[in-house]
Predict the 3D structure of the following.
Amino acid sequence: MDALHKLGEYEIVKRIIGLLDEMPDIPVTFGDDVSAIRIGRGRMAVFKTDMLVGKTDVPPGMSLWQAARKAVVMNVSDFAAKGIKPIAFLVSVGFPRTFLESDVEDVGRGLNAGAREYDAYIIGGDTGESSDLIISCTVIGFGSERSLVTRSGASPGDVLAVTGTFGETSSGLKILLEKLSAPTEIKEKLLKHVYLPKARLKEGLALARSRAATASIDSSDGLAISLHQLGSMSDVGFIVTDLPIPPEVERFADIHGLDPRDLALYGGEEYELVVAIKTSLWEKAYRATKMAGGTLTKIGTVTKERKVILKMKGEEEKSIPFRGWEHFKR
Amino acid sequence: MDALHKLGEYEIVKRIIGLLDEMPDIPVTFGDDVSAIRIGRGRMAVFKTDMLVGKTDVPPGMSLWQAARKAVVMNVSDFAAKGIKPIAFLVSVGFPRTFLESDVEDVGRGLNAGAREYDAYIIGGDTGESSDLIISCTVIGFGSERSLVTRSGASPGDVLAVTGTFGETSSGLKILLEKLSAPTEIKEKLLKHVYLPKARLKEGLALARSRAATASIDSSDGLAISLHQLGSMSDVGFIVTDLPIPPEVERFADIHGLDPRDLALYGGEEYELVVAIKTSLWEKAYRATKMAGGTLTKIGTVTKERKVILKMKGEEEKSIPFRGWEHFKR
């Protein structure tokens, strides 16, 4: 029988979902970023749960405060992708026996900081003893059924766009996990993305309000996997013609003979939004994101064919494989 | 500095809560069994999260199916105490690398069984890799603000009552963890309480509907701790004059020279309800519980003095200490 590392996280989730009775009349299907329950008058209660495990999700040098904050931010990012404002969090924390009182307090402060940064609150939780640090967060929000941006609404011809830039986190993780070097000023910028990730909540809320987004996902498993997931749920493909890669990633890649596009595509733990936008509403979406203090960059087009393709100017087209961050796979 | 096992779970939770900004206008305070958010027109969305850790919460001989089911039932029990019907669950599962595909499927089936047993559904979740088996469940429900039975409404003079009987689980855990012996027919009954705990949902919903309960808690940390917590949140005390101990617990205690009252008071992982009932509505509460298929037994009285006292017929009164199941403490 296959062990779990052969299956990988996505297959494990699929197996479990296959064994569950599906709730009737559910407004958001299994496989999207969030779950929801109708509460009447076109409104929904919206939920997401995401678990941080010390061993796999906390890179070297990340403080407990940062890890706890990140556990909250991971969940906010999924809400950002759906255009739902987080209201409150429940948090279960498993503490290793070796932790000190001050460690517990760092976790408490980090959780609170993460929630307050997005104008939400921790309203409940549980603790227990575990071998790893475990922080399992559930985020709660409310929204109208019409306004939630699912993974499944993208249509051929839509603009493919992203917030922010890509490759900083995967570069930062290479510095931390593979001990690659980088000049100080670059290193600091890259590590900041790892230690203090931001969820694109303002951008996500603005995009949902603009009604220009037809589908959306966050890039927490890496841009490549996010595109495959968005494509699968919307039954479309993508041609990527541009990648917003910042100078520090180009420089880092150059130093180590790496392809900056690989850093941008096959990373993970990066919390940008990947969205499909109605062509006729592109300007509106662009302006809405800018007004919210963010950036929206066109990186390609939604296609009918179920393939994810990289086709940079003047180059041959290349397939973008389903590859990136996946639990159990490493 | 104190390590966590010196602090214990309750002090750890207190420390963390002390570091959190409290959400304004929250209908249920920190320290109750559930959290809630007002959703308008007197209604609330109600939540509870509880985490099962293989190492501390899964006794020897419990199957993965049973452990997963129990992780759900633990959460249902808190809703039962508040008189709130569970609608849906989110579940984060941490799987050890050594698990097999069939183990994953057992967990999936157990989760589904636990939810369906109480007419609810699993609607979302997350998985990751961890050293221990981790099952963190969040349960979601809705209710009117008036009907939720908090921990804080008990008044001196109220009847103190419980559902079911006590001592089976602690006896069963002694068989499993301390290898104490028991005749087969008794052993089977006791172990069933450990492996297949039931939440008193029908009873809890009936009690809430009867409007006879002034305060309620489940006995998952043991009857003694539950009484102390109920007393602390209601600013009252209790005189316990009776304990519903079944014959198999009496027999088990007799065989091993144990005090059956200790087994009933200082156990844990037992999911009965501990409720305060308005004296004038006792008959109504009793009948409502019976109609729901359960039992409600008067075990004492709510007192003004903030003490928890055992005063059995013809005996001296004795203090019931805050002692029972607490994470990190063992």
In short: Chain B touches chain A through 76 residues (CB under 8 Å). Chain B has two domains: 4-144, 159-319. The radius of gyration of chain B is 19 Å. The mean pLDDT of chain B is 94.
